[in-house]
Design goal:
The protein has seven helices and 13 strands. The protein starts with a helix and ends with a helix. The chain has three domains: 53 residues, Roll (Structural Genomics Hypothetical 15.5 Kd Protein In mrcA-pckA Intergenic Region, Chain A); 90 residues, Pseudouridine synthase I, catalytic domain, N-terminal subdomain (Alpha-Beta Plaits); 75 residues, 2-Layer Sandwich (Alpha-Beta Plaits).
Length: 236
């Protein structure tokens, strides 16, 4: 692999910045100064140091974010801040993006990655990955409404798949769904004459919220979390 590709894949810098660093003599491979950015390296075994920082090659990254209100689930938006604005530049340079969407006012767990195959597999309808959300409502949810929602309700010409609701109080609880239509939970509650006033995602498949993360904070997935997600996506 070319040196500049390796370093840019890792989000260290742009290719032009890498070429400039090479010319300045601030990049070494196995202890030797490298002046050309197109030098071939073994990304798995060579020791590459960029401006004093040892770079470990990794093509994909996986982040758990506690999304705050007011952020759009995208990599860019013409009007509002986006969730990737909360991340360091190195991750943005690696092409990280949100796996699935939460609307602007929904908070909680988000998976961000640059692994397109994993994201596609997890979001594919046939995968039936369960998402759990904690909701607050304008009015109490009756037993009849719970039964109707769990069986499936019509949201603008589409009947939702069966789901599960666990009430924690008459006007709040947790709902588990296996699909992700536009504003689905809000529309499901509207279908039974109620209105969502707060919504937080607490799990995505086997990935659960990290209570140690404040709103807007993030961390990389642990190897165990990634292994479970890849298993759910039928990836080795």
């Amino acid at each position: 692999m070319r040196l500049d590709k390796m370093l840019s894949d890792c989000g260290v810098a742009s290719r032009s910045e890498i070429a400039e660093a090479c010319r300045a003599g601030t990049v070494t491979v196995n202890g030797a100064v490298v002046k050309r950015a197109d030098t071939r390296v073994n990304e798995e075994t060579d020791e590459v140091v960029y401006r004093g920082q040892t770079v470990r090659y990794r093509r994909f990254v996986y982040l758990l974010l506690n999304k705050p209100e007011g952020y759009v689930s995208a990599t860019e938006d013409g009007h509002d801040p986006v969730v990737t604005d909360l991340l360091p530049a190195e991750y943005r340079r690696m092409g990280i993006f949100p796996c699935g969407r939460l609307d602007k006012y929904t908070t909680g767990l988000m998976l961000l990655t640059n692994d397109g195959e994993l994201s596609h597999r997890l979001l594919a309808p046939k995968s039936h990955v369960t998402k759990r959300y904690r909701f607050g409502l304008e009015a109490p949810l009756t037993a009849e409404a719970v039964c109707a929602i769990e069986a499936g309700v019509n949201i603008g010409g589409y009947v939702t798949k069966p789901c599960k609701i666990e009430l924690e109080a008459p006007d709040r609880g947790v709902i588990a769904i296996t699909e992700g239509k536009y504003h689905q939970i809000k529309r499901m509650m509207e279908a039974v004459g109620n209105r969502v006033v707060s919504l937080e995602r607490v799990s995505f498949g086997s990935l659960a919220s990290d209570v140690s993360l404040a709103r807007g904070e993030w961390r990389e997935l642990t190897p165990e979390e990634l292994f479970r997600l890849r298993s759910e996506a039928n990836l080795k």
